[in-house]
Design a protein that fits this description.
Oligomer: single chain
CATH class of the largest domain: Alpha Beta
Shape: elongated
CATH architecture of the largest domain: 3-Layer(aba) Sandwich
Structural class: alpha/beta
Strand content: 15-25%
Radius of gyration: 20 Å
Number of strands: 11
Length: about 300
């Protein structure tokens, strides 16, 4: 049975391109009979873009959060009030999903600078979603989807030395299991998992360090024992070059982001997994340089909405 509940779209930083692409995507989906969408943000911001883009109010379902002071609405400007509003929109969209009134959530682009200016701890949507749902932050992960790849990250937005110090077999195993569960919900019953090594060539048997012997090798063994199909650990370049895996597990941010961004560019989707809700954002930023000009491309948001519609 088709789920008739809408997908909640948090409009992101109200001074970035998020509201514009949210309105464009919602209107495009309604015109083609796509999944229903509820825009979550300040109604006056949404209406501003609807009017500029020639979209009728009746074509948009919206939930007014009432967070941003009208004087702080200034497309292209980074400010604390917009950062706080971004988080408020996300929290309200999440409440919709938790209450059963939305089947999934899309978060439009945010500004970490604006959110930090508001005094809110933030290192990306996964950590925020973990806090809002009461989940441990080390059990909520980011999976990028795009360019024919799906890559989950064991660690994310942190200093590389800190990420490597935090890596352990339990964290890597948790990332892989969480991603495999998410892919099952997306309709892939038995994903083949490629496990990247920590060091080049996955350590080359200790020649390039013992990190993989202590981290990725035992993680791979535990995953296989649990009945999952795992390739590796091996060098990321080798695994990506030979292909054949449905999912890859990256050890740190750039190891996973570079191949997806190279192949998918701004059209990638970024799924937050492990928090019990379907939540995704897009693979690009708030583009303050073009905010308010009406030229932002909603394609990544549309792809993300269609991805979640197929999973929910």
């Amino acid at each position: 049975m088709t789920d008739a509940r809408p997908i909640a779209v948090a409009i992101g930083d109200p001074n970035g391109i998020g509201p514009e692409i949210a309105v464009k995507a919602a209107a495009a989906l309604k015109a083609c009979g796509g999944p229903p969408v509820t825009l979550v943000g300040d109604a006056f911001v949404i209406r501003h873009y609807a009017e500029r883009l020639g979209v009728e109010d009746d074509d948009l379902a919206m939930l007014d959060v009432g967070s941003l002071p009208t004087a702080e609405f200034a497309p292209g400007r980074i400010c604390a009030a917009a950062g706080r509003a971004t988080v408020d929109y996300c929290a309200r969209a999440l409440a919709l999903a938790q209450d059963g009134h939305a089947r999934a959530i899309v978060g439009c682009p945010h500004s970490e600078t604006a959110i930090a200016a508001a005094g809110i701890p933030f290192s990306g949507y996964p950590s925020l979603i973990a806090r809002l749902t009461g989940q441990p932050e080390d059990r909520v992960f980011l999976m990028l989807v795009g360019g024919g790849l799906r890559i989950v990250h064991a660690t994310l937005h942190e200093r590389l030395a800190d990420a490597l110090a935090r890596l352990g077999p339990g964290l890597v195993e948790a990332a892989a299991r969480t991603a495999a569960d998410a892919l099952q919900r997306l309709g892939l019953a038995r994903p083949r998992i490629g496990l990247f090594g920590v060091n080049p060539h996955a350590g080359e048997g200790g020649l390039f360090g013992a990190d993989d012997e202590h981290v990725t090798v035992p993680a791979a063994a535990a995953l296989r024992q649990a009945g999952l199909e795992v390739e590796g650990p091996a060098g990321a370049d080798v695994l990506l070059g030979q292909g054949g895996c449905d999912l890859y597990v990256a050890m740190y941010h750039d190891q996973g982001h570079i191949p997806v961004k190279l192949l998918a560019g701004r059209t990638a989707s970024a799924l937050t997994i492990g928090a019990g809700v379907l939540f995704s954002t897009v693979g690009h930023g708030s583009a303050f340089d073009i905010a308010g000009r009406g030229v932002a491309d909603p394609e990544a948001t549309l792809r993300t909405l269609r991805l979640l519609a197929g999973a929910a």
